[in-house]
Amino acid sequence: MAEDNELQRKIDTSNLESIWTRNPGKIIGFLLRQHEIPFKRIYISIPFQSDNPQITLNRMEAVKHYAFELMQKGLTPLTPIISGEAIFRQCNDGSVLGKASWQQYCFAHLELCNELHVILMGDTINSSQVIADIHRAKQLGIYVKYVPRGRSYESED
Questions:
Q1: N or C: which end of the chain has fewer CB within 10 A?
Q2: Is the pLDDT of residue 134 over 90?
Q3: Which CATH architecture has domain 38-148?
Q4: Cα–Cα distances in Å, from 71 out to 12, 50, 140, 147?
């Protein structure tokens, strides 16, 4: 991965503390990818907000069910829609956080994962955040899997 090669060069030639303070998630993700990772971390991607509050609730429920299923199979789900929900509730509608900050928050989670699973519900595949997640995963060489809502996790190993 070109980005990992560039990061390795920066680590070899600069102050690691300086890199760490700017982007710890990127460093941790890089270091984890350099070694055999003993467990699978799966980033679950789905848009968070909708103009329709019921759609937002349905998305959260779908992610919770899927994350629970992954955990039952011994996998580790990471998903900003669940962890970030409390942040959005604190900021009322999330507008304080802003799109760039939210994307940085999402990417920090994604960079720690081995796989990206996109839950397909309605038009989620057209969401700018989901598209950005897929693009970033491909940049990092992270496997992308598309999961129709209600479909069980099936390992492809």
A1: C
A2: yes
A3: 3-Layer(aba) Sandwich (3.40)
A4: 37, 27, 24, 16
**Triad 101, 106, 109: Cα angle to 5°:** 130
Confidence of residue 45 (pLDDT cuts 50, 70, 90): very high
**Predicted pLDDT at 157:** 37
Domains of the chain, residue spans: 1-36, 38-148
CA distance 111 to 13: 22
Model-level pTM greater than 0.85? no
SS3 annotation, the chain: CHHHHHHHHHHHHCCHHHHHHHCHHHHHHHHHHCCCCCCCEEEEECCCCCCCHHHHHHHHHHHHHHHHHHHHCCCEEECHHHHCHHHHHHCCCCCCCCHHHHHHHHHHHHCCCCEEEEEECCCHHHCHHHHHHHHHHHHHCCEEEEEECCCCCCCCC
CA distance 76 to 93: 28
